[in-house]
Amino acid sequence: MTSSHAVQSGDAVRKHVLVFRTLPPDQLARLQAAHDVTVADPRKPEERPRFDAALAQAQGLIGASFPVDAALLARAPRLEVVSSISVGVDNYALDVLQARGIVLCHTPGVLDETVADSVFALLMATSRRLVELSQLVREGHWNKNIGEDLFGSDVHGKTLGLLGFGRIGQAIARRAALGFGMPVIYHARRPVDLATQAPELQGKAEHVPLPALLARSDFVVAMLPLSDSTRGMVNADLLAAMKPGAIFINGGRGATVVEQDLLHALDHGTLRAAGLDVFATEPLPLASPLRTHPRVTPLPHIGSATHDTRHAMAALATTNLLQALAGERPAAVYNPAHP
Ligand code: DGY
């Protein structure tokens, strides 16, 4: 039997895979067992030529946090599958992928609880001023009991308003409603059927119009995906409609917020504080006033950044890629490739 006959008679076909973000060794080994794999990070100038050469051959791409735009896809004529190690797909030219019949996979589900933990940490940190007060101790300024000027505001019992109520939003709502006794209201394109999707939140989370959410919420948490309809959604008007003293948290995508408007609301409006895990430009430019604003708690996009969860995301993305390259329906496909 010739090797080409072996390939055609049932042995799996080895394809070209380009890994553009570090994969854990066990997941890289799964790919290497089945395919010819190049690992090259396009963000590193010294790896760019290898990335470009591999891209021209690649049938599978796997990675995250790099724009896979129309120009990049034009240099990947053989591409069949893109597997993102993220749930968000705003880095991908969805229209081009769809038009070319390229499968796009992502990692929903495995990161929900971890991102909800991170968002809750921001909620606690902003309301109780944890970073600022910890800094005071570290810098040796705890020389008397703190006074009212450094008191925080309560979390328990306060109203949480969620912009977006997908899986992660629901995980945040569970923490708030079941753990902190917080009334939860949410605004989404359509109400979620709690009886079937989140029975534990029945009677505890209510779908309300946006103006009502803004007027009633002590915490407004944005968990919005980035799309044409959400880009810049958190703007001056929306911020001005928030309850005086409200705290704003963003755990979704930075570009859903007009950052100048957020700064203005902090400096000249009644917004108490903001906790931000995501920014319009990441990493956050050194010149951004959000980096050092006294009432902003900035984080470096760590929503899903735990060892367990990042490994689970890499494993799901690897499974997705292997399945799609084998012609099977992947476990988590975003954009089934049938134009
Ligand atoms: C995602 O998966 O889209 C998250 O933003 C990563 O933390």
Secondary structure blueprint with pairings:
Elements: H1 3-8, E1 16-19, H2 25-34, E2 36-39, H3 48-57, E3 60-63, H4 70-74, E4 81-84, H5 94-100, E5 103-105, H6 112-128, H7 130-138, E6 160-163, H8 167-179, E7 184-187, H9 194-197, E8 205-207, H10 210-216, E9 219-222, H11 236-240, E10 247-250, H12 259-268, E11 273-276, E12 296-298, H13 307-325, E13 333-335
Parallel strand pairs: 1-2, 1-3, 3-4, 4-5, 6-7, 6-9, 7-8, 9-10, 10-11, 11-12
Antiparallel strand pairs: 5-13
Helix pairs in contact: 2-13, 6-8
The structure holds (2R)-2,3-dihydroxypropanoic acid.
(2R)-2,3-dihydroxypropanoic acid is lined by residues 86-88, 111, 303-304.
Please characterize this protein's 3D structure.
By secondary structure, this protein is α/β, with parallel strands linked by helices. The protein folds into 2 domains: 7-110 and 307-325, NAD(P)-binding Rossmann-like Domain (Rossmann fold), CATH 3.40.50.720; 112-298, Rossmann fold. 36% of the residues lie in helices and 14% in strands. The chain has helices at residues 3-8, 25-34, 48-57, 70-74, 94-100, 112-128, 130-138, 167-179, 194-197, 210-216, 236-240, 259-268, 307-325, and strands spanning 16-19, 36-39, 60-63, 81-84, 103-105, 160-163, 184-187, 205-207, 219-222, 247-250, 273-276, 296-298, 333-335. The strands form 2 sheets. Strands 8-7-6-9-10-11-12 form a 7-stranded parallel beta sheet, with helices on both faces. α2 (25-34) packs parallel to α13 (307-325) and α6 crosses α8 (167-179). The longest helix has 19 residues, at 307-325. The protein is globular, with a radius of gyration of 23 Å. Mean pLDDT is 95; it is low at 1-9. (2R)-2,3-dihydroxypropanoic acid binds at residues 86-88, 111, 303-304. (2R)-2,3-dihydroxypropanoic acid is lined by residues 86-88, 111, 303-304.
